[in-house]
Amino acid sequence: MKLASYRIGDRQTYGIVTEAGLIDAGARLTGNADLASLLADPAPLAALADTTPDHALPDVTLLPPIPESRRIICVGLNYKTHIAETGHEPPAYPILFPRYPDSLVGAGTPLVRPRMSERFDFEGELAVVIGKPGRHIPAADALAHVAGYACFNDGSIRDFQRHTSQFLPGKNFARSGSFGPWLVTADEVGDVGALSLTTRLNGEVVQQTGLDDLLFDVPALIAYVSQIWEVRPGDVIATGTTGGVGAVRQPPLWMKPGDHIEVAIDRLGTLSNTIIEEDQA
Question: Quick check: 125 pLDDT over 90?
């Protein structure tokens, strides 16, 4: 299934994306407040999958699939190509930092370049959404805890990212990243290592890789993270970006107002956003 969170009119809800439109599961499953509450047991969603859609996709505003995730963890320097282009040594352990929900928008909503900086960079990524809770999860069992996958753009304000050794400031400006367009359940995705990721800026390919280039793959990341805390339904792990980021190019390639950025992953869809100035937001 393709599962989306969205807004229609003044109402926020969630549902199932089909070729014919959106099935409003939030209106039909009134005992479940949001999509995250159904990830551990998606059977009620599956039971609605063949029903008549309630909305046309162009009539809604897509939100991040998990709009208010309690934990969004990003992974730094996790593609071998990106490690090589930055000149770093491969890390011994995953480099983790948080993003907060208000730093992310859904597909179709503009990303905001802050007035503080012009060094607004793209990072096309795979996001993993947890469905089954667990702690101290062996890597061999980790995929059983995945609800599904989505595209992610870890939009980065590079000068603020480099103010200190901590990545957090450059990764959390309001509406600087995106997540979506929907969550595709793990049973429809299969082996993520067999998929490819492509980032396009104004139609030009700027990043392209197979997801088998990850230094720490999805099972390894879940195993590591679950040593630190219990992973719970709706937790998000953004697995890092590949080579080709704007900061390492000569001259650097920054996203600017009026630009259009896309992150596409096989079987997951395309996450598309335009760029606007903060004063336009």
Answer: yes
Tokens 């040593």 correspond to 227
CA–CA distance, 161 with 167 (Å, rounded to integer): 5
Give pTM, 2 decimals.
0.97
CATH topology of domain 72-280: Fumarylacetoacetate hydrolase; domain 2 (3.90.850)
Domain coordinates in residue numbering, the chain: 2-62, 72-280
Cβ proximity of 271 and 111 under 8 Å? no
Phi–psi pair at 141, nearest 5 degrees: -105, 0
In angstroms, the Cα distances linking 235 to 38, 115, 130 are 13, 30, 5
DSSP per residue over 107-154, as a string?
A: TTSPEEE-TT-S-EE--EEEEEEE-S-BSS--GGGGGGGEEEEEEEE-
Interatomic CA distance for residues 99 and 19, integer angstroms: 32
- Average pLDDT across the chain, whole number: 96
Half-sphere exposure in the Cβ direction for 131 (13 Å, CA) = 22
CA distances from 219 to 51, 137, 234 (A): 34, 9, 17
Burial class for 229, CB neighbours closer than 10 Å (0-12, 13-18, 19+): exposed
Give tens-digit pLDDT for 149-177. 999 999 999 999 999 989 999 999 999 99
State both tokens at 253: 């390639």
**Stretch (H or E) spanning 44:** helix 43-48
